[in-house]
Amino acid sequence: MKPLDPRLLRRVRPVRAFVTLTAGAGVVTAGLVVAQAYLLSRVVARAFTERETLAVLAPLLWGLVVVVAGRAVLAWATETLAVRTSARVRSELVEHALRLGPRDPRLPSTGELGTLATRGVDALDGYLRRYLPALLLATTAPLLVGV
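Below the sequence we write its predicted C-alpha cells.
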C-alpha cells in the first residue's frame, strides 16, 4: 500500500482539496520553522556573544513571537480543516453505501461493511488529522530547507 493512496484522491473530492491545502500549509510551516530557527539563532548570538540589551533585541524577539504565533494558527487551521474533511469523507462514504444498497455486489459482505463503517471510517480521523499532514510536511520541509 502506498503512503497516499491515489484511489482516495480520485474518488473522494474533499480529500483532494485537503491534500492541496495541507501541502500548502506544510510549505508555509517549513518556511516558518526556518524563520524561527534563524530568529532564535540571531537572538542567542547577539545576546551572548555581543551582549546586546533587551531593548536592542526586542525587534528580533517580537519577530520570533509573530513566527511562533503564525505556526500555532497554521497548526490550528490545519487541524480544523482535517476534522471537517474527515466528517465530509465519512458522510460521502455512508451516502455512497446507502445509494448502492445492501445487496450491491460492489459492496463487501455485511460483516465487512459493518467493520468498515465503524473501525475503518474511524481510522480516517487519524489518517487525515495526523498521518497525512505529517507525510506532506516530511516531504516539503526538507526541500524548502535545502533551498
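Residues 114 and 120 are 9 Å apart (CA to CA).
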